[in-house]
């Protein structure tokens, strides 16, 4: 009988069977090598042996164990552990109750913890304890660090003030920079190139078209399932919000063709996958970064290009209609007023049109 390689998925499975490893998500956080452990965890979760948990929260908690092990100062480790557990993880779990945590959300959570660790190290290097930290120290730190670091450290400082671990601080306002949207002409040029270049992989066609037509972030695109694509007597609809949005040709036909020819469907773990863009791991969709790399090579940059798509939609119809049909919060589309939105005072009511400019009610009557 062939002996399993130590640390392989087979070896981990045997150790689980012997009871050497508890059958809990917490136990999997410490297993090595982590890739084999993550693969086995996803298989067990997909089979219902382990309870379902947000993939990004799993990833963060596994990373947190290794990060805490690198902090040599016991007091710093205790502060970072408490901040990560009661603030960062708690917020991630609250978010996961509404919708899956995105990889970008997971990265920001990790950056918050890393910058919290770096801030405590910076204080110690200046001979200052956290309790003795004053406004002048906060001001000095903000001057010495960039905007991303300032945004990341804000969570720790607010948590410290709320818990009375420090005094009160005046913190700078958080600034959010938006990428400059491309023009409508550039957007249509990209869309035309995408739909006429027959040398492109089908997956790239479909993902790029969804971004350019429907203004969707890739974190949401990868969460679409084949059940979100509706073939209504030849009219292809994509459920992003309510009502589902018609997909104009030839993009609609490409979308239906893609469903029958999706990648990553030949493994035992994904044979019955309902994801529109299946990933390689059991029960998981494709990672947004993987999809982003494919369409970025075509000159499609998701933030700027979907901003351009939203702006065009709100020029053609009320922003509340756009928000509901595309699955956005109404506040997200308010920046359309910068583009001369003539619908800014529209009161959301009965929505007759979709973001593609089609009229779903009339097409259904046909």
What's the structural blueprint in terms of helices and strands?
Blueprint: H1 9-18, H2 25-28, H3 34-46, H4 55-69, H5 74-98, H6 103-125, H7 135-144, H8 147-162, H9 184-196, H10 202-214, H11 218-221, E1 229-232, E2 235-238, E3 245-246, H12 251-260, H13 288-296, H14 302-316, H15 319-326, H16 360-365
Antiparallel strand pairs: 1-2, 2-3
Helix pairs in contact: 4-5, 4-6, 5-6, 6-8, 9-10, 10-12, 10-14
3D structure, described in words:
It is a single chain. The protein has helices spanning 9-18, 25-28, 34-46, 55-69, 74-98, 103-125, 135-144, 147-162, 184-196, 202-214, 218-221, 251-260, 288-296, 302-316, 319-326, 360-365; strands spanning 229-232, 235-238, 245-246. With 366 residues, it is mainly α. The protein has a domain at 184-361: hpI Integrase, Chain A (Orthogonal Bundle), CATH 1.10.443. It has a three-stranded antiparallel β-sheet. Helix 4 runs parallel beside helix 6 (103-125), helix 10 (202-214) packs across helix 12 and helix 10 packs across helix 14 (302-316). The model is unreliable at 339-366 (pLDDT under 50).
Distance between the termini: 66 Å
Oligomer: single chain
The largest sheet is:
3 strands, antiparallel
Look at the helices and sheets and give the structural class.
mainly alpha
Residue share in β-strands: under 5%
Order of helices and strands: HHHHHHHHHHHEEEHHHHH
The fold-level CATH name of the domain at 184-361 is: hpI Integrase, Chain A
Order the strands across the largest sheet as they lie in space. 1-2-3
Helix content: 40-55%
Instruction: Return the average pLDDT rounded to an integer.
Output: 77
Provide the CATH superfamily of the domain at 184-361: Intergrase catalytic core
Second rung of CATH, namely the architecture of the domain at 184-361:
Orthogonal Bundle
Low-confidence stretches: 339-366
């Amino acid at each position: 009988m062939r002996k399993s390689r130590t640390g392989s998925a087979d070896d981990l499975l045997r150790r689980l069977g012997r009871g050497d490893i508890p059958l809990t998500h917490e136990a999997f956080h410490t297993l090595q090598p982590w890739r084999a452990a993550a693969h086995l965890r996803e298989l067990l979760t997909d089979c219902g042996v382990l309870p379902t948990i947000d993939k990004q929260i799993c990833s963060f908690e596994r990373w947190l164990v290794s990060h805490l092990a690198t902090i040599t100062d016991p007091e710093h480790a205790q502060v970072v552990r408490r901040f990560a557990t009661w603030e960062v993880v708690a917020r991630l779990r609250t978010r996961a109750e509404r919708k899956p945590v995105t990889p970008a959300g997971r990265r920001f959570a990790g950056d918050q913890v890393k910058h919290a660790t770096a801030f405590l190290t910076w204080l110690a290097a200046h001979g200052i304890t956290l309790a003795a930290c004053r406004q002048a120290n906060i001001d000095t730190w903000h001057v010495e660090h960039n905007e991303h670091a300032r945004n990341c450290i804000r969570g720790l400082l607010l948590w410290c003030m709320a818990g009375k671990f420090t005094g009160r601080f005046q913190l700078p306002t958080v600034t959010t920079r938006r990428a400059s949207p491309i023009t409508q002409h550039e957007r249509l040029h990209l869309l035309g190139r995408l739909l006429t270049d027959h040398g492109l992989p089908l997956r790239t066609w479909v993902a790029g078209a969804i971004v350019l037509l429907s203004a969707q972030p890739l974190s949401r695109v990868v969460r679409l399932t084949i059940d979100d694509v509706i073939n209504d007597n030849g009219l292809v609809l994509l459920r992003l919000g309510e009502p589902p949005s018609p997909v104009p040709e030839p993009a609609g036909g490409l979308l239906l063709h893609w469903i029958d020819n999706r990648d990553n469907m030949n493994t035992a773990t994904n044979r019955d996958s309902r994801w529109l863009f299946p990933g390689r791991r059991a029960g998981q969709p494709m990672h947004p970064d993987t999809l982003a790399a494919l369409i970025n090579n075509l000159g499609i940059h998701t933030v700027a290009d979907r901003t351009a798509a939203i702006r065009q939609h709100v020029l053609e119809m009320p922003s509340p209609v756009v928000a509901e049909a595309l699955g956005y919060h109404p506040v997200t589309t308010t920046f359309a007023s910068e583009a001369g939105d003539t619908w800014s005072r529209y009161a959301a009511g009965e929505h007759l049109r979709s973001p593609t400019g089609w009229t779903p009610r009339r097409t259904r009557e046909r």
